[in-house]
Structure formats: structure tokens, C-alpha cells
Amino acid sequence: MSAFDFHLFSPTELLFGPGKVAELASHPLPGRHALLLLSAGRSAKTSGALDAVTEALAKAGVAYTPCAVIHENPTVDLVMEAAAKAREAGCDFILAVGGGAVLDSAVAVAAMATNPGDLWDYVIGGTGKGRPLAVDPLPIVTVALTAGTGSEINNWGVISKLDTHEKIGFGGDARLIPKLAVVDPLLMRTVPPKYTAYQGFDALFHHTEVMMSRGVNILSETLALSAIAHIAARLPKAVADGSDVEARTHVAYGSTLAGITMQLTSTTAQHSMEHAMSAYHPHLPHGAGLIMISRAFAAYFIERHAADGQFVKMARAMGLPDADRPEDFLTALVRLQEACGVSDLKMSDYGITPDECMTLAVNARETMGGLFAANPCPMSDEDCAGIFARAYR
To answer: Is the model's pLDDT at 52 over the cut of 70?
Structure first.
């Protein structure tokens, strides 16, 4: 496949920059009654987003029904609960205000507010039945409160099914792409330091995986390298001082770009592997899990010389301008993790045990096996389990 062979469909109207939430009321909303989808915590209130958004809705003459049920690693049950609430209230669009969990959930809630059955009827992979959506989903508007996923402008969300230990991406239907998205770094100033780091590394790994991917193309590489450079340069500052709006803006830029690069090029099995980890251990933050396995995952391909040039490019983007070996990427990655205070994260601290390595490897392939095909060289279940073992502490 040529590097100039790509397909991009990104119809979301994006309002990006400090203070942009104030412009929400001046842009057409896709309905007259919103399901206001929020986390079960206080992030929307604490950040000032809730007041800003409800004020905008009032100015626009749009009614809303609040639904504050979403938590980290959102589940099928919560999606179905929120969808039922949208139907009962007669909502005609979803307004998701929150971090990655809320934005991911919005995709599934929008689909299930109009379609019959259970979400897993429409999930592809694992025990999902893979049915197409028969009815148009509700339109989606997003207001991002964290910089980590890029979900504010794409049509995918990752949902967990606890009884079967499955955590699988749902979406892909063009009808699920948000109509309008607001990314306002002023709303991210209250994110705690460790979560700023976890989310920032999630954003970083979206792009590093795109760079490693077999499907990388000229546009996804250009955008990914830009995002990597901005995140690597400013994430430590955002972690150290959450009120640093400039740093927050650079990291948010890198995160939002992932919503485009992941449409252009698939991520790799690193994400499948972490989803397996948090499917079995739901209290594990996604970004933290990615950090835990990141060095061993990259080392697997570096040792096989599977994408040497890509690793060198990333190392240079991450602040090593003279990098000329793929191993330099690991040096840059470790330095960044140390600068953000996350280099010592341990799988054992979240209840993961060494004897789970093969279980997690098999689960990763069974639930999100498509991402293994994007790896720059083959990876067997034994190889995958070996990466978990190598990363284990």
C-alpha cells in the first residue's frame, strides 16, 4: 500500500482553544432536548464546565436531562441505563461533557437510545454479535474535559462487559461521529497531576502506535509526529502545574489530533493488551496500564528491527534531535515517564499477578484481535504473554 493511500472523513465542527466553551451557544445544536451525559464524579462541576454548558443551553433555548452515571472503564450496564433515560426523557441528541470515559460512552449511548436490544448485539469481537445499527443513532455533541483520547471527534468508544471480562471498542459507523466538539484547555486545569500524566500518555501512545503501525501513511505520520512533539515537550509542565494553560493547550492539541490519526491509521496491539488488563482489573486507569507495558511493547519490535526508521523519527520528535538508533526511542520514553513521575508504576499494585500473562494475551487477541494485524511484525500469544511478563513488576 502506498504511503499516499488514505481515507479521511472528519465532519465534526471543532472549537479548539482556551475559552472556546463560551462559544457553544452561538453554534447550531443538533436538537432541542439533550441528554447531558456526565461522569458520576464532580469533574464537570469543579472545572466550571457544567455551569458553562448549562448556561449555553439556556441561551440556545435547549432543554436538557442530566445523566451523571459514567465512571472509569464504562460498562454495558451504564450505557443501557443512560440510553433508557434518553428515551424516557424524549432526548433528541447527546451532549457529553467529560473525559474519555464519558466521551466513549456517548457513542454507545447514542446508538442504544434508538436501537433495540443490548449493546453487545452490535459489538464486533469477543462475544459480540456484530449486528449493524438498524436505526440512526442520536446526534452527538462533545465537550472534552481531559486530554487523552481524541474521542471528542471520532466515532469509537471502548466499553467493558464485566461478566465476561471483555473490553472492546464499539463504533465505526459514520453516523456516530460527533457533530460539534469543544476542546477548551481552561476546563482541564483541575485534572489532578497523576491523571494528567495517565491521560497524556494515552494520547502519546495513540500516536506512537500509529507510527509503528503497518498502515501508517504520509498524513497520519505527519500529524502523529506533530502531536508527539507537542505532548513530549509540554506534558511534564502540565503535570507539574495544572494551571499552566499553555502546557495544557499543547497537550490537548496532541490529544485531539489522535481523533484524526486513528481514523487514518489503526493503533496496534498495545491498546488490545491494556484493554485486557483493565477488563480483568477495572480499577486500573487505562493510561496507567499503557505506561506499564509501553517499554516492553516497543522493545519487542525494536529487537526485531520491525520499524527502525519510525522509532528514530519518534525519538527525534521527543527531544533527541541526534537520535540515530531505534533504541533512542526507549531512552526518550523513559525520560518522559520519569519527568512525569510515572516511571515506577507496577502491575502488582492493581492486583495483576504473574500467572495472568497468558490469560491476558489470549483475551487481548480474542476481544480486539484486529489491532494485532496492525503490528509491524507478527506477535504470537506466547510473544504477547512474554511482553506482559517482561513488563511485570
So the answer is: yes
314: left (phi over 0), alpha (psi -120 to 50) or beta: alpha
Distance, in Å, from the CA atom of 96 to the CA atom of 104, rounded to the nearest integer, reads 9
Provide the grid cell at 230: 507537542
The position carrying cell 520528535 is: 317
The order of strands in the sheet holding 93-98 is 13-16, 180-183, 140-144, 93-98, 33-39, 63-70
Q: Are 288 and 193 in contact (CB under 8 A)?
A: no
Angle (nearest 5°) at CA 71 between 68 and 74: 110
Q: Which amino acid is at 137?
A: P
d(CA 23, CA 230): 25
H helix runs in the chain, sequence order:
43-47, 49-60, 76-89, 100-112, 193-212, 218-240, 245-264, 269-280, 286-303, 308-317, 327-339, 357-368, 381-391
The identity of residue 259, as a single letter, is G
- pLDDT mean across residues, the chain: 97
What is the 8-class DSSP label of residue 99?
S
Between the alpha carbon of residue 202 and those of residues 93, 108, 198, the distances in Å are: 28, 21, 6
Q: What per-residue confidence (pLDDT) applies to 111?
A: 98
Grid coordinates belonging to 117: 436490544
Residues of the chain above pLDDT 70, percent: 100
Over residues 220-269, the pLDDT tens digits come to 999 999 999 999 999 999 999 999 999 999 999 999 999 999 999 999 99
Q: Is the pLDDT assigned to residue 356 strictly greater than 80?
A: yes
The whole-number pLDDT of residue 136 equals 98
Evaluate whether 82 touches 70 at the Cβ level (below 8 Å): yes
Please report the DSSP string for 124-164 in residue order.
-STT---PPPSSPPPPEEEEE-SSS--GGGSSEEEEEEGGG
CA distance linking residue 371 with residue 267, whole number of Å: 6
CB atoms within 10 A of CB 314: 28
